[in-house]
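Notes from the 1:1 (GR / supervisor)

We went over the backlog. Supervisor wanted to see one worked example end to end before approving the batch request, so GR pasted a single chain during the call. The sequence is below; no edits were made to it. Supervisor asked that the structure be written out right there so they could see what the output format looks like.
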Amino acid sequence: MNKGIFTIVLLIFTLFQAQKPVQIAFLSDVHFQDLYGSFSDHDFKGTINPKTGKSTILRTMDSQLHSTRIFNENYFTFLKALDDIAVKGIKIVAMPGDFSDDGQAYNLRGLHKILEEYHGRYGIRFYLTTGNHDPVGPFRNDGGKDDFLGTDGNPLGIYSRKDVGKSTEKVITKDIAESGYLEILNELKDFGFYPQKEDLFWSTPFDGSSSENYSYEEGLQAADYSKRMYDVAQGFSVPDLSYVFEPVKDVWMIAIDGNTYIPKNLSENPANPSNYKGAAIGYNNVLTSKQHLIQWVKKLADEAKKNNKTLIAFTHYPMIDFNDGATHEIKSLLGEKKWQLERVPEEEVSKVFAEAGLQIHFAGHMHINDTGIRKTGDTFLVNIQVPSLAAYLPAYKVLTIQSPDKMEIQTEILDEVPRFDELFPLYEKEYDALQRNTGKILWNKDILKTKSYHDFMLFHLKELVRLRMIPDDWPEDFIKKAKELNGEDLLLLIQNKGLKAKGIKSENFKNWSFDDLLLDVYQFQSADELAKKDIPEERLKQYHVLETLYRDNNSKDPFIQQLKSVFKILSLLSHGDPANHFEIDLKRKEIRKL
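Structure output shown during the call:
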């Protein structure tokens, strides 16, 4: 090639690369469990899968269908998501917590191996922050689970000590204990918790260093476990693995460790791992017991503004109410302790962090797709809820920084996942064993007929609502009365005259039941606007009719009032801010659906 032409081509290529916008993928609540891992001190390899001949360490389907997350198939979904990210050419992946399922050593090793493989093969750099499942508490604690699948199809207990757990059939291994911060840091330090050589800047809330004189060697010293402690109460010192990093020029990312582990008994030994409350409540406890994070975020925001850096934060916990304005109605209908309402952040959380200078925040924890916006005076904060790979609707988010003032957010749904049905023969074995044990609730075996990961996860939600959400959250007498009704019954309860004049044919509402309505409410809670593709269009139109009629109804009948609340909740959850593909304009302080 002519030298002049080559120089021009090289220049064009270089300019193209320089102008290419920065992209960051956010993968939250992976809840990685190593199906094909092993224990360092026990020869148990799991149950042999007749389909593959592989020994598999898995949890029962019964346990999955009673949990807000699955434990097994997300292994394959994680690999699919990483393959997807690699094909897109994205080189930065942030993981906002619950990257493991209770931080057991064998799962952390398996996660490390996969992250290392994708870093080596595709040059992807991973940045993790902790969730309430990694760690469960600040220090290593004995533990285990009763619901692994045994070789005979019955549940098997795997514990870290003989005197832990209820199962008679047991496997004892230290690798099932719940790791503390130290163990997690030692295993996964290469994935954000320590500086990476490629980082242009890396710091913690405790080292006080400036980006102007940053050096990798100083970053390594600041990353040491002993230098990342704070007093959560007098005499109780616990770790905080928060850090800030600059993965590419002029982009700062804050990985906030939102876990706040508070001692239950101030007279106890501070090293007792069982003496700490779990962190699931999130930022509400940060306001009271981890205030150094607020000052640190403010310092970083001021410095970022001064140096023209784009600032992005990610944490496990949401900063803004994620119920699209329905929290008050849910509380009135179900009570304060239902629907995970204790996890809803107080309004003060968004106010404090917005005033500290934060504008873009990614979170997980709730396993939902949602966008929340708060404007207070001149401040503007957007909270983007990243869905879980282990729940409906399985997806991850891609942030594209178009300019310092414009961010594009795309939700990447994982409908098709290779090998998602690989474990189905093992569940068949479990179901047969359950049938032999009378008196046990059987899960719906039709889940093993699903043909895609999307359908599998929708079926999981349906069974979760039936087996857990309805019994735990809803008034028994209300459900008993309402579940006998179909759409037409719900219509005729409040409007049986003048329907023809309004162009409404009541018989068209017969096609769905109250159970369908309740499932759709949970679908909107989980997937936001993306739930619409799983609900018939005609039914969505009929919901709109019923929402309007119930809103305008003035009946004092308690049952009608309860139904009125259900339709108001449905309406609010199905009309939230854009949560699929949208643009954030920081200059205009608004978001726009794309």
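Supervisor's comment: The longest strand covers residues 395-403.
Batch request approved.
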